[in-house]
Structure formats: C-alpha cells, structure tokens
Amino acid sequence: MKISTWFGVLEMGSKGEILASELFPKDIRELALHSLSLRDSRQNLPPEGFDLKAAAVECRFVESLSEYYSLLHEVTLDTVKIQISGSLTPDQRIIQAVEALDDINETTNSLSERLFEWYGGYFPESGLNGEALALFIVKYGSRENVTPDDLLYLKSRDSMGAKLEAEDEMLLKCFAESVCSLYGRRKQIEAYIEGSMEALAPNLTTIAGPMLGARLISIAGSLEKLAAFPSSTIQVIGASKALFKHLRSRAPSPKHGVIFSHPLINTSPWWVRGKVARALAAKLSLAARIDFYSAKKDISLEGALEEKIRKIRAANPRPPQKRQEGGAKPQKKRRK
What we know:
By secondary structure, this protein is mainly alpha-helical.
C-alpha cells in the first residue's frame, strides 16, 4: 500500500512496516507546494493514527525528532505564505483597481476644481477646466507667456485677470503638474482594468464593457458571486438606497442600478428602460456564468441582446397613455 506524506511516498507492508520510500529533496518551497497539492488531491493519505514523525526518522528523511519538527515548522510557514500570496485572485486585483480608480477620481475632481478657482482669478477668460487647464498651466504658467500661435493668445492679451507673480506662478505650475500626474495615473488604471477584464471575463466585457463589468464584479465581491446572482439582482445592483426605500415605504421600485450607464439603457426612451434593463441584466448574468465556469467567449451573446432590444423598441414605439379617470362613481343610496 502506498502512502503519500509531506516528505515523500512510502510503500507499506501488511503489518505497517515500511518496505520502500521515495523521499523528496529537503527544499522548503518544494515541500510546501507538495503539501498543498496533497491537501487538494486527498489521495493515498496516511490512515488515522499513523505516526508520521516516526516514519520520517525510520526512512532516514531526518536524523532526529528535533530536526523533523524544525523542518516541519519551516514548511508550514512557507505553505501559509504561498496561500496568502495566492489569495489575491485576478478578480480581486480588478476590485482593488476599481476602488483605486474611485479614489483617484474623487481626488482629481477636488484638485481640478481648486485649480480652476485658483487660476480663474488670473485668467478667467480661458474657458478651460480639468486636464486641459492643468496642461495649459504646466505649459505656459502666466497668461503673459502664451505664444501667438495659441488659440487663447488674443484672450490672454485682453484678459481682465490679476497679474500672476513669479512665486505664485511656480506654485501653480507645481500644483498643475500634480493634477496632470493624477490624470495620467487614472488612464493607466483604466488601461489595466480593460486588459484584465478581457482576460478574466471576455463575455462580460463584450456585453457590459470593461469598466461597467469591473464595477459589477467590485460591487458583487467577486466574479463567482456575480455569477451566482440572479438577473433580477444584477438589474438593481448598486441601487440599494432606492431598493430599501421601496421596501420600507410605497416608493416605486428601482428599474436599474449601475447598469444605467450602459448605452443600451441610457439612450433608450424612458418608457422602455425597464424592459431594456431586464433584457440586459439577463445577458449579463449569463455572460458572468459562462466566464466563471467555462472561460470561453460566446460570440452569439451580443447579437442576441441587440435583437432583443430591437424587438423591445419596435413593440413600444410610443410612451404609454395615461389612464383616463372615469366620471364620479354614483353614490349608494342610504337606507331610510
């Protein structure tokens, strides 16, 4: 009978004696990896009560019990390190990237507004904001440095803004460089999310787009959890406040959550958005399950969704008419 242990494979006799042994090298990482594979396979495990430490000494894997326990301690620590390092799965990395993108967006928007108000006192006629304004400040600084070939040259010459001193100009340029750096980091994270989503969930990326698909995974917690959600949950995911308000009171139920950002919904007439959201959520649920369980791209999903949306819009070309209230109900005659 063969027995697989963390230090080797043992050939056991009918009376429990060791007939032969195939010992592994005393490499900590290799022993840790073998221990993990042994735990996952669960094949040829030692019987209950089997003395591993005595067997390791008997087959000359170690010279003493102290060496056995010391080596086992190192292998166990390395096994835990491997498990921790492997816990950050691809969908978890995408979730971290989405959360980092949200933080960068919040910071960038706040700093861009501050830069707009700050520089607006010196050149209020620029009409620039956001990244365009930051790039303009990094390039020119003061409006007096604008070259004649620039479209804002005439406005810079006739501006009613205050004069920008050299010290303030240097400070504004440094501030604008920081804002430009944040915009660059945002583009870098977006590119990372797009590439990761195409590799992890190609069907979800095709239907929802990389950014919306990544946000759905982030809200759900993982691709596995998203694949387990019914389409009705995916339809309203991200609309928890409106959903709870509907459950607590008589507020109307939400027709869509974060999937409203999908072009098929936000470009549809208001009276068919609910139907479009249900159709889209059904395909998103199917795409997430295909990605998680088979990881094969189904090229028919996108065409089927477009055909479904076309039928919905064709069947509802005009908004529904309001119900006309009838005349006053006749009052019941009171009995004398």
